[in-house]
């Protein structure tokens, strides 16, 4: 590390991540420095307008098996290319991520990851400047503490 540069937190190739603003106390994430953006599996999502601005509602069933519905303002929509080279237009939102005792704002897209082992993909833009990955290790930081933030609550 360069003198004066902040020490980066080491993550394993998979970690537990909390998304408290979305009502998710923890979700299993694959840490992927090869992926640019973060993706969250949702079972369903729908668009609506509130106060003249675009919003998205969605349903996700985290590891607890109990479906959680949440809403968030739409940050943007853009084309994303998946690891198989397929392009699709996805909704992005901004939310707080809690990982390894740190909270930071991340952009995350809503996706159908039904066939994947991990409901969340943690991409390099969310890790930039704070984390580095040791691919030989996993679940270094345990499950985040804290309860579920009530669903269908507007983010702060």
UniProtKB/TrEMBL annotation:
Secretion signal, residue range per the UniProt entry: none
Pfam families: Zn_protease
Matching InterPro entries: Asp_endopeptidase, Peptidase_aspartic_dom_sf
All copies of domain Retropepsin-like aspartic endopeptidase, residue ranges: 10-143
Name this polypeptide is given: RimK/LysX family protein
Species for this entry: Novilysobacter selenitireducens
Taxonomic classification: Bacteria, Pseudomonadati, Pseudomonadota, Gammaproteobacteria, Lysobacterales
């Amino acid at each position: 590390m360069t003198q004066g540069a902040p020490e980066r937190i080491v993550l394993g190739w998979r970690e537990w991540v909390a998304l408290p603003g979305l009502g998710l106390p923890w979700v299993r994430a694959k840490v992927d420095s090869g992926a640019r953006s973060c993706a969250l599996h949702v079972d369903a999502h729908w668009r609506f307008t509130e106060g003249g601005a675009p919003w998205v509602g969605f349903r996700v069933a985290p590891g607890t098996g109990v479906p959680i519905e949440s809403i968030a303002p739409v940050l943007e929509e853009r084309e994303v290319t998946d690891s198989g080279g397929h392009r699709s237009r996805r909704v992005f939102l901004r939310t707080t991520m809690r990982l390894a005792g740190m909270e930071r704002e991340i952009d995350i897209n809503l996706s159908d990851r039904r066939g994947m082992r991990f409901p969340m993909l943690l991409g390099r833009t969310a890790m930039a400047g704070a984390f580095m990955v040791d691919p030989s290790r996993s679940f270094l930081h345990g499950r985040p503490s804290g309860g579920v933030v009530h669903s269908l609550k507007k983010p702060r």
